[in-house]
TrEMBL record:
GO terms for biological process: carbohydrate metabolic process. This is Beta-glucosidase. The lineage of its organism: Eukaryota, Viridiplantae, Streptophyta, Embryophyta, Tracheophyta. InterPro entries: GH (IPR017853), GH_1_N_CS (IPR033132), Glyco_hydro_1 (IPR001360). Keywords: Hydrolase, Signal.
Amino acid sequence: MRRVLVLLLLFLSSQTEATVPFTELKRQHFPPGFIFGAGSSAYQVEGAFAEDGRKPSIWDTFVHTGRMPGQVTGDVASDQYHKYKEDVKLMHEMGLDAYRFSISWSRLIPDGRGSVNPKGLEYYNNLINELLSHGIEAHVTLFHFDLPQSLEDEYNGWLSPKIIEDFTAYAEVCFREFGDRVSSWSTVNEPNILPLMSYDVGLFPPCRCSYSWVVHCSEGNSSVEPYVVAHNFLLAHAAVVRLYREKYQAKQKGKIGITLLAFWLVPLTNSSTNIDASKRVRDFHLGWFMDPLAKGDYPVTMKKIVKARLPKFTKTESKLLKGSFDFIGLNHYSTMGVEDYRFTLRTKRLDYITDVSAKLKVWRNIFVSPTEEDGSSFEYLSQGLPRLLKYIKQYYGNIALMIHENGLGLVDSPSTPLLMEAADDGIRVKYLEQYMGSLLSSIRNGSNVKGYFVWSFLDTFEFGFGYMARFGLYSVDFEDKHRRRKAIVTCSFV
Ligand SMILES: *[C@@H]1O[C@H](CO)[C@@H](O)[C@H](O)[C@H]1NC(C)=O
Ligand SMILES: *[C@@H]1O[C@H](CO)[C@@H](O)[C@H](O)[C@H]1NC(C)=O
Ligand SMILES: *[C@@H]1O[C@H](CO)[C@@H](O)[C@H](O)[C@H]1NC(C)=O
């Protein structure tokens, strides 16, 4: 196939005769035990949305109201529910140490709480056993955006503290049933962006907002709800970690943590307002979760700006949160420029976005059109990763980290109808090389990073983009009934 694969093969199979340009990139240069993997999430790849007792999540409801571009859905997605054996085989051929995937809460416990679906149990048991029998570790995310619809209907899901008990009970089923074979658990994926997308601008389900300029929300309060939801994520995370540590970890010997979206943010110019703005965005982006997790409370900047709208932790909660992780997972895609931006009084808006008061300059390297991008920016952008890692070490200590997502999405366009063009791969190879290279130099410089996962193993249903952005190391033909994986390995470099 694609040069990406070839690169990974070289890189993962410890061969020394690489003719890839980045000759330094060899597996054995990474510390022993370093994990190379690739990832996915349940709603994005499984499909089988109404099969074997699975009930809807809020994403099913959302896509079925036709709100995705092109009205696409994840009903079938990459069909991994039916094709997991084939996929595990491909992972094995690629030489992956681990697969990062999530469990669909409403497949396992269709009503969100109460009875467990035996077919759900069977599926995840099968998947995990298949991975293990191929020597691939299971790294499992408990919550990756797909809340059971029934809990949203009953008490507004993550807006209510009732979620903590139900999430913990769901997690316990997972620990009890799968924990003997799971190496690593992440409680929640990207809780630091979901409140913004779902409760401030209302673009993601449950589509709540009071200010959005993009969509009309029938309910919501953008001033307070993003902060309440983040607070409940933190408390639910802490409760689940306590449960795992008290009851399961000694026996099962897995690790547990949480996964945050983590851009590196640089001031667009060296003006003091832009430097302050970039610090502020870092606090609202990473500090929002990292400070409570590492220090037991929200960043001072946030307390000063958000004031009474920011929930408070009790002493007990704060103690429970502090140190409630064995590792922090980072989803790192790019570096962004930050510019101070004051909303005019006329807008009378008070939400996360006006609290942050900044504009972000996104260099287009998360989604690129191969015809427009030559990858020349990657060298500069990838320098953000070592800086991010250094920043975390400086502010939060030498904690264990996992790069849980890093990757490049290629956008299908009329001029490049096929993702399979060799040119497409060239650009992705460049991206991955640059990022893996800068990761390696950080590790050599003392960064405590334990693993690296490419997003994504397969092309997936991308939240917000549907099937337009292709991140997969293996591509999927979404036009094909059988969702053929396209893995035409030419191995010209091996
Ligand atoms: C949001 O909630 C706050 C606190 O309850 C309230 O003061 C404010 O008026 C609400 N805003 C909207 C737009 O409903
Ligand atoms: C800001 O200052 C730093 C250090 O002096 C320098 O490396 C950087 O290029 C400057 N950035 C801009 C955008 O001028
Ligand atoms: C490497 O570590 C040194 C000492 O802590 C630090 O000064 C330097 O900036 C680091 N370099 C990178 C690329 O992280």
